[in-house]
Amino acid sequence: MTLASREAAYGSWKSPITADMIATQTLSLGEVAVDGDDVYWVEVRPSERGRHAIVRRSVDGTLTDILPAAGEGRVAYSSQSLVYGHGGGSFAVSEGLVVFVNHASTGLHVDQRLYRVNPGRTPVPLTADTGGKHRFGDLVMDRTRNRVVCVREDWRNLKDGQPRASLVAVDIDGQRQTVLTEGRDFYSSPTLSPNGRRMAWLAWDYPCMPWDGCELWVADVDELGVLHHPRLVAGGTTESVFQPEWSPQGELYFVSDRNDWWNLYRLQGRSVVPVLEREAEFGTAQWQLGMSTYAFISPRHVVCAFNEQGQWKLGRLDVVLGQFAELATPFTDVSQVRGGFATAYFVGGGPEQPASVVRLDMESGKPQVLKASTRMPEELVPYLSRCEPLHFPTTELGEAHAWYYPPTNPGYSAPAGEKPPLLIMNHGGPTACASTKLDWTIQYFTSRGFAVVDVNYRGSTGYGREYRLSLYGNWGVMDVDDCANAALRLVQEGKADAKRLVARGSGSGGYTTLSLLAFRDILRCGTSSCAISNLETLVEHAEKFEAHYMDQVLGPLPESKQLLQDRSPCFHLDNIKRSPVLFIQARLDGQTSQRETEEMMRKLRANSVPTAMLPVDGEPYGPRITTDTKKALEAELSFYSRVMGLALAEPLEPVALEPALPEGPRR
Questions:
Q1: How many angstroms separate the CA atoms of 655 and 611, rounded?
Q2: pLDDT for 215-237, tens place per residue?
Q3: Residues 550 and 543: beta-carbon distance below 8 Å
């Protein structure tokens, strides 16, 4: 029997895609900026305990770290904003000068001061040490006035227990801060016109999230940088505006969902004029600051990323003639779109392409990968599972969407008639979407004989405003229904074993996993990583950005107290009769404390449901450093093998389940 035809049970196949490879070789890439012929980006490096390094690629291809790393007698610098709890826009660059938000620990607190730095120099602080109580983000250079404009969050001046937000200007040569505008709950996206005489920004108030409704404002800017005559030009509580951007000629463009889809518009005089109308999303949920889906690459041409049926694509738009053409690229997940002359830069990934910083020459149409998040060895290509779209009927006569990944390994086939175990993946948010870029975690499981379904349940982005907001009032019901129905559809099609359905998720995705366990009796087991289990606790510990998210998703307290309890898995653990649970718990997670997880484990064990907990270092939503990433992934596979009786091809440390499972036959 040849290797290509070796027969073995699903879930027991040997794979060269290892947890060690994933943990040690994978970076996170983001926050792209263009400065002349140079391009900059942020790398989150697990090997440096999650440090956010700023990297510059010069026109000759030279890569340079802008921030000093830790060394003998030298502190490490890390570019990461904490504004609104999710950060973004942590640095800006102009003519080689970089201004950044430093996230490194200084004594008893995380710094969060602004610094300026030239390559090869020691960073110089621009703002005073407030003990981390001033946070900055969404940085934009204003070199005309020698300052940086940004969002500031002030934790020394609380309003109803929450920090105050404002738009400020910080002098690059000193520590002077000037408040430009304040009084709203949230600000984002400050952007200056090419001549520096006008500024646009977004603002919104509770209970809206920016994808519910926000406002686009424009003001004149005098020589001293003071704003005059601010006026509202678009948006409101029922219209979401995304990424205001000035054209080279000084026209204001922006994305709005006023026609149910995030499409591109421009301000013409005092009128809002559509630039491109299409049943696709040219914007996305603004979870972080500094997000970008389009950029000017000439006075009349824009390169756009757009999401159509849950998959990102790129296009080129002539804003004068209104002509739009899709661009053929291998990238199905695109973010951080920035423009140079006849050149686009972005972070892109695809089914066979790990997330990468990419340069796209618009004349030749050829993309060039400047930095990949991980190596893509040729010998691993045959092991990659290619995602397939899955559209399926669900409750209340609805339709939902998912991406299905079949088990794939050239060295193995399964015994005739056997169906694979199915891993149900639930994205976080819940206002977010499943990505189709190469995900080594998915491939880790599919190359071992698991099927995977990554569900874009109702409430996901990429399918219009109506689909996105349909989860409001229905969280804990529609998302659970859609994940269950995606799995049952695959069972019906003969692509999954009904007795071996498994769910995994982190944060709010972990909430859906726990809800599947507590409210639907279809799972063999589940993995909950820093999951939300008590919605009242979520409200109590929410950062400013999400402090009223539950008001929108389910309803405000105290009126919705009973509904929050009805939808909280921790109050319904008695429903879980036979499905073991693995909890992966980050020690720094403020939303789901280790004590809360231990209480859930105690209740489940009292009902004879086997559980285990793997504590990891790092922040909410899972491990961020190399050793913990490897440990968590191997523990998860070991857990599934123990519960489902899989004979693994590699020895793994067994997960200590309590109460212990009875010994059973291995597949």
A1: 9
A2: 999 999 999 999 999 999 999 99
A3: no
pLDDT at 530: 86
> Please, how many CA atoms are within 13 Å of residue 18, restricted to the half-sphere of its CB?
10
Q: Are 491 and 497 in contact (CB under 8 A)?
A: yes
pTM > 0.90: yes
| pLDDT value of position 74 | 72
- Count Cβ neighbours within 10 Å for each residue of 449-462 and write b for 16 or more, e otherwise: bbbbbbbbbbbbbb
Note the helical H segments in 581-625: 594-606
Instruction: Tell me how long the chain is.
Output: 667
Which positions ≥6 away from 132 have C-beta within 8 Å? 109, 110, 111, 112, 155
d(CA 348, CA 359): 10
Q: What pLDDT score was predicted for residue 621? A: 41
Q: What sign has the CA pseudo-torsion 623, 627, 631, 633?
A: positive
Please state, in angstroms and rounded to a whole number, the distance separating the CA atoms of residues 37 and 116. Answer: 20
Cβ 204 vs Cβ 185: under 8 Å: yes
Beta-carbon contacts of residue 232 (< 8 Å; ≥ 6 apart): 215, 216, 217
In this structure, what are the phi and psi dihedrals at residue 504, rounded to the nearest 5 degrees?
Answer: -140, 150
Q: DSSP character for 518? A: H
Both tokens of residue 633?
A: 């992934």
Question: Do residues 508 and 430 make contact, with C-beta atoms less than 8 angstroms apart?
Answer: yes
CB 613 within 8 A of CB 656: no
The predicted pLDDT at position 623 comes to 42
Q: 476: burial class by Cβ within 10 Å (0-12, 13-18, 19+)?
A: buried
Q: Say if residues 468 and 456 touch (Cβ distance below 8 Å).
A: no
Q: What is the DSSP letter of 421?
A: -
Quick one: residue 479, left, alpha or beta (phi over 0 = left, psi -120 to 50 = alpha)?
alpha
Question: Helix crossing, 508-519 with 478-492: angle to 10°?
Answer: 70
- Specify whether the CB–CB gap between 84 and 74 falls below 8 A: no
Residue 280 token pair? 């696709």
The residue ranges of the chain whose pLDDT is under 70 are: 1-5, 72-73, 106-108, 587-592, 618-626, 664-667
| d(C-alpha 258, C-alpha 171), whole Å | 37
